Backbone:
């Protein structure tokens, strides 16, 4: 029963991104990473290097962000969950804390990220929902949207769906799932990919949105995925961050929790 | 085709009450009524006497608050809806505007108000939901809660469920519906009454909550409704306003919209 000097704690984090300048810590602005690091420091008196799986944009939300940190504190994970939730502001919550192997890395061990983009066809939805939905005020035809989404799975160069990318930077990502479905007045786009290039989720949603409202055809959308046909082309509009939620980060079975000793 | 000098416009209003000091206008604080009056004034340049159906508490929400005002402005109701939504802040929305007879009065013509109180058994729910739910962190037994709720319909003196009421003030109200149901980790209390005494919805919810967590018995709850047995008794706890939403205000069929001329 030797006590390990350091432990790695993995957190599943939920947040309403409205009042955050995104995940990634920055000076002088309120970020989720910064807020969490402060709370960890308040709880155990030590600053931690908190590593997140996905750098969500300012205004985007999360129901299943994952992050990890190393700590000498022997507190059991359930206690971490409890005490962190006590000091965190109401727009951030730990859904689960667990102990993972020291080698675990939230970002590098992640197999995929699952995002959802919600669009309402109404110009205004209930104030209790509008923080999480892009209110477009336009009828959308989901048939061509589904057709366009069906071309996404597989490996593609997502240069046309990315933000300010260096010409030499690799924009190839593997999309595992892309679907479009109706839920009341909402059209919901589900995207799962190995990883996302900066701005990719909101630009894929934007591309599908343009197809849904008849501004672009399915074949125009498809052409964006074929490198030689759309070099320099960048028509997808970027939809507002508030419609985007990181639902889940998936890991392999080999990175299960370390059993508490 | 003579134009009426004044028209009465009826609004169905939705709001996230988190950042409001309640419905009723007060000096120097942000209220829903004040915010709406400002918006009406911005739209048509004239101040209006806006009359609401229900004075919701600070922090309580609404999906179907009703209010009305008199205006010389000949703008059709659909236009009112559109332009008000353009100037209103994101936490307030007009769900519908209609023209009603001049004699209509949101408060006095209302036949009943429907409130919902949401309690989660978890200590913390997702930040995207926690603004609308009281997170009690306790298991609740809904069977005795339902039993207690079943004693509410009918006419009762709700003195024991009211806030600072003058001894001579009438606290008799008619409850039309009271139910308790489970929805995932939530227990939802639905209350419909002719009208509510100040604090009544949150105190009925508080009483049912005490029964649900086993602190009080169903018969103790029932006794609060029988005047001579509980004079001076006031055990129901007041649950936080954030769990409370005004779902609907009901009117008789005779108060339908005035057809546009």
Residues:
């Amino acid at each position: 029963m030797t006590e390990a000097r350091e432990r790695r704690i993995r957190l599943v984090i939920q947040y309403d991104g409205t009042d955050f300048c995104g995940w990634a810590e920055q000076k002088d602005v309120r970020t989720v990473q910064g807020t969490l690091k402060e709370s960890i420091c308040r709880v155990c008196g030590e600053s931690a290097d908190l590593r997140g799986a996905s750098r969500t944009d300012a205004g985007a939300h999360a129901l299943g962000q994952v992050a990890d940190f190393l700590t000498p504190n022997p507190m059991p994970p359930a206690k971490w969950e409890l005490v962190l939730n006590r000091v965190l502001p109401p727009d951030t919550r730990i859904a689960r804390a667990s102990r993972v192997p020291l080698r675990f890395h939230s970002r590098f061990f992640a197999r995929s990220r699952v995002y959802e983009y919600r669009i309402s066809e109404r110009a205004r939805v209930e104030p209790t929902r509008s923080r999480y939905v892009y209110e477009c005020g336009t009828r959308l035809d989901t048939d061509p949207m589904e057709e366009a989404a069906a071309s996404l799975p597989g490996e593609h160069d997502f240069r046309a769906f990315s933000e300010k990318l260096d010409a030499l930077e690799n924009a190839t990502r593997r999309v595992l799932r892309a679907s479009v479905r109706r839920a009341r007045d909402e059209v919901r786009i589900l995207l799962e990919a190995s990883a996302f290039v900066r701005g990719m989720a909101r630009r894929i949603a934007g591309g599908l949105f343009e197809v849904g409202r008849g501004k672009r055809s399915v074949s125009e959308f498809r052409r964006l995925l074929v490198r030689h046909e759309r070099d320099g082309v960048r028509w997808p509009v970027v939809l507002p961050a508030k419609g985007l939620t990181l639902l889940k980060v998936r890991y392999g079975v080999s990175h299960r929790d370390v059993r508490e000793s």
Remarks:
- Chain A has five helices and ten strands.
- Chain A has two domains: 7-108, 112-247.
- Residues 61 and 242 of chain A are 7 Å apart (CA to CA).
- Helices of chain A lie at 32-44, 77-87, 142-149, 200-212, 218-223.
